[in-house]
Amino acid sequence: MSLHQYRRKRRLGGGSGQTPEPDEAPARGNPKRRPIFVVQLHHASSRHYDFRLEMDGVLKSWAVPKGPSLRVGEKRLAVEVEDHPLSYAGFEGDIPEGHYGAGHVDVFDHGSWACEGDPLQALAAGKIDFVLHGQRLAGSWKLVRTAMKGRQVQWLLIKRDDEQARDAEADDLLHAPPRKPAKTNRASTKKAAPAPRTAHPRKADARWHARALKLDGARDKSYPRQFKPQLTDHRDTAPDGERWLHEIKWDGYRLLADLHEGEVKLRSRNGLDWTADFPEVVQAVQALPVRDARLDGELVVLDDNGRSDFAALQRVIDGSSKQPLRYIVFDLPGVAGVDISRAPLLERKALLKALIGDTPGTLAFSEHVIDHGPAVFEASGKAGFEGIVSKQVDAPYVNTRARSWVKVKHEDTDEFLIIGHTAPKGSRVGFGSLLLATPDKGGLRYVGRVGTGFDDESLRALSAALAPLAVKAAVLELPSHVPFRAASVRWVKPVTVAEVAFRGWGKEGLLRQASFKRLRSDKQKEDLAMSEAPADDGDDVAITHPERVVFAKKKLSKGDVADYYRQMARWILPEISGRPLSLLRCPDGVGKACFFQKHHGQGLGDAVHAVPLQQKSGREDYVYIDDERGLLQLVQMNTLELHPWGATVADPEHPDRLVFDLDPGEGVSWADVKRGARDVRDRLQETGLRSFVRLSGGKGVHVVVPLLPKADWEDAKAFCEAFAQAMAEQAPDRYVATMSKAKRSGVIFIDWLRNTRGATSVCSWSLRARESAGVAVPLRWEELARVGAADAFPMDKALARAKRLKADPWQGIDALKQTLPTSKR
């Protein structure tokens, strides 16, 4: 559904004789914010609850007659209704008599929600498994589409079995005050506990201030905000003795927190602002019983055995997992206006544990063992941990690398810059080996190659990530003893950090038996050397699950699709750059549930932009991109087909491309389709318009007309409709200009409806979501006669054609200065 139905049913505007319901969807603020939900109690002719989940820039909505039940497994009918604008989430009041939905509306509950994977995919599949974080409703739920017949699609809303389930329903909660968001650091699966913060936060700060001042070396002044982290040294063996304590080395992202006057700012180890990205961590830090604190720790996701899982953490961050985040805090250099960085570590940690509490949740204390370093290290290996961090118990907190903190790993690993790669050999895909370097005396020093530790998935993902970083000039001068020539290297900008396991250093200063571990997207070049040089922004799009099969019949994977679009970017971008797009996304591949998306939404990527366009339903954010990074980010989100507007985001009201889609009915031969395309070309030429031809990649042909953006959409629509009708009247045995399938057997439908505002057609070189993996390929008119079918170019043949091309088949299309016969020049 769309907001068109919402507006069609209402007299909006809020004036006399109009409904006070909101008329527009507000512009999204932070694109990374979590999606919202709202439940409204609607006293209409039939009292019911309206249940709404944010998806694709609107509130997907269901009417629940009896309201949600909190009893496990109890099914409540949820009737799917029209989409509502996001601004409706805050609507309360009276809808006047005589209007659609007349009656009083109250907000029953609101908050955020999340599901595992893509919500639009779940909606299309008919089952949405999700969690709510609200004031009255919380925990796990599901919506399941039924096969029941009716005027509207019917679903069932069901509470899952968890600690939030109980013998109650929505009506039982009406007379109880909404549950306050828990000001506690406990995990979301725990019942809400009393907040540790008192009613007088400044008095609490005073108590913690006095307590902190008792630590040895404490100073009566605030520890600086924006402080730099203490970094670890490296050892091969764990230190022993009572001077050392030992913590688990957590596998996540270093995270620093500044709590100042009750407000929180989160930072990465290299100073990036992560506050908006992790609101649950912000809330947990704000719930501490102080208004001022400086925290240092690691952001992780834990598995069932308490081990940190870096891959799971990445899924949570990209929005495809509901697993809870944990901020494991291991130091407290300042609290309640007192600088305790010079106090002994054991005293700081004791105060930190008292501040956080004993029960781990979103905030957790990093436990430690004093003494017995070798035994602790051995035990950590048996438990499956990466290693330990050993710290001197009496050491201060310093803002640099220091020997008082050392990391000991079960593997010898370190981080290096990727500076290039060699060509693959034999059956290997992507590349042969990565060339590595480390910062040294203001430049870079070559440290060797890594050619193992990759599977096909990581080879494809790394190839895609490094492709946008390619440079022609050598990044550094290779030593004379390397067994290959610099001319054979494909160089890349030295901005991507790789973690590599190795067995020591060779006599020439090169890594021995290196094995690739992973990319470190949280680290940059200056982190390796701790230099003052500014960061270099590298474009890096990782393709997750590249092994996932997309075209089963052709045995083509998501990685293959990404490789195709990466190689074809220079041809595709001129077709789509700076144009509103509709995306056909197929998360589970061709033949499974696919869906169109035109609205901008969270998780699409930082290079996928939003453009607000005025529609009948209000202002809506549409998607557009302008570079290869944006294209690959769309592919990462399982986009297969790209359908641009016939106008640009700079001038959306005046089309500069028209498309006539020749769609053959049953019994029409391919020869007839080609003859029809040439016929359309000739008739357009008679009106003074030159055109170009494209195979649709399906079963038809597109005839494309470039224009100067002079005419508006009404003029374009009128011209195209009249043109198609004229052709159908002149040759009714060959053409039809109506969508009616009953009239299309044996004739070609000249689809002129692509030329209305908001309509789209597939772009040149786009893949099609069909078993054949066909591509919409542009041709020169003289080539059309030699082509045997509309899908004559599957992916591999399209790539081969592009490599053979010496010039664009549509060369000169952008230089044409033509206008519609009805428009003023």
Per-chain topology:
Elements: H1 3-8, E1 36-43, E2 48-55, E3 58-64, E4 75-84, E5 93-95, E6 103-115, H2 119-125, E7 127-134, E8 138-145, E9 154-159, H3 170-173, H4 201-213, E10 231-234, E11 244-248, E12 253-260, E13 263-268, H5 279-286, E14 292-300, H6 310-317, E15 326-335, E16 338-339, H7 345-356, E17 363-365, E18 369-370, H8 373-382, E19 387-392, E20 401-409, E21 413-421, E22 434-440, E23 443-450, H9 456-466, E24 490-501, E25 515-519, H10 525-529, E26 549-551, E27 556-557, H11 558-576, E28 581-585, E29 595-597, E30 609-615, E31 618-624, H12 628-636, E32 639-644, E33 657-664, H13 670-686, E34 692-695, E35 701-706, H14 713-730, E36 735-736, E37 748-751, E38 778-779, H15 795-804
Helix pairs in contact: 9-11, 11-12
GO molecular function: ATP binding; DNA binding; DNA ligase (ATP) activity; DNA-directed DNA polymerase activity; exonuclease activity; metal ion binding
EC number: 6.5.1.1
Region (Disordered): 1-33, 170-207
* Order of strands across the main sheet: 1-2-3-4-9-8-7-6
Query: What is the typical, i.e. mean, pLDDT?
Result: 86
User: Which geometry do the CA atoms define?
Assistant: globular
Number of domains: 5
Q: Figure out the total of helices.
A: 15
Q: Report the structural category.
A: alpha+beta
- CATH class division of the largest domain: Alpha Beta
Euclidean distance between termini CA atoms: 40 Å
Rg is 31 Å
DSSP strand content: 25-35%
The residue fraction in helices comes out at 10-25%
